[in-house]
Specification:
Blueprint (H helix, E strand, L loop, with lengths): L5 H8 L7 E5 L4 E5 L23 E6 L4 E5 L5 E12 L11 E6 L7 E7 L4 E11 L6 E5 L6 E7 L4
Parallel strand pairs: 1-4
Antiparallel strand pairs: 1-2, 3-4, 5-8, 5-10, 6-7, 6-9, 7-8, 9-10
Length: about 160
């Protein structure tokens, strides 16, 4: 990153991502404005500039197309179904040889792997069902597949918005 300024790199890759926009709740009510979606992350609570509106609000979705930052209660951050693509499979059997794999997955680098069911949709796409919901899952994060009892890596891919 030139001079540690990632925002300038993102702005070149995604023009408009640094443009101001609206902060809205999950029902679409506008609560304030922001200085560009590139300055926010899923799960963020501080620095939103909309304090004092009651219960704490968290960023639950970023919509760069409409330049909207969507906020909601902490419960809205919980995710059980995670679409993953660009999978690099390292298992002994072909990825698509089963309808589902019972593995552990790691989505957040600061948290331990958690039990999941990985369902192949193609050789490079899958639906990951987390047995316990995870907070703050967002597109662009890595999802790494591990052996359930052990540390062997079976592969991984990138979380994306949809199928």
């Amino acid at each position: 990153m030139p001079n540690g300024n990632y925002a300038s790199v993102i702005e070149k890759l995604r023009p408009g991502a640094a443009d101001p926009g609206e902060i809205a709740d999950m029902e679409g009510n506008v609560l304030g404005t922001h200085r560009g979606v590139i300055h926010y992350t899923i799960g963020q609570r501080r620095g939103l500039g909309i304090g004092g509106l009651g219960d704490p609000l968290y960023v639950v979705k970023l919509d760069p197309d409409t330049r909207r930052v969507i906020v909601g209660p902490k419960e809205a951050l919980s995710t059980r179904i995670v679409p993953v693509r660009e999978i690099n499979w390292l298992g002994d059997a072909p990825f698509e040889s089963r309808t589902e794999w019972h593995l552990s997955v790691r989505i957040r680098s600061t948290r331990p792997p958690r039990p999941a069911i990985v369902r192949p949709l193609s050789a490079t796409k899958a639906e990951v069902e987390l047995l316990d919901p995870e907070e703050g899952v967002s597109p662009g994060q890595a999802c790494v597949f591990y052996q359930t009892a052990g540390s062997r890596i079976f592969g991984g891919g990138w979380i994306w918005r949809g199928y």
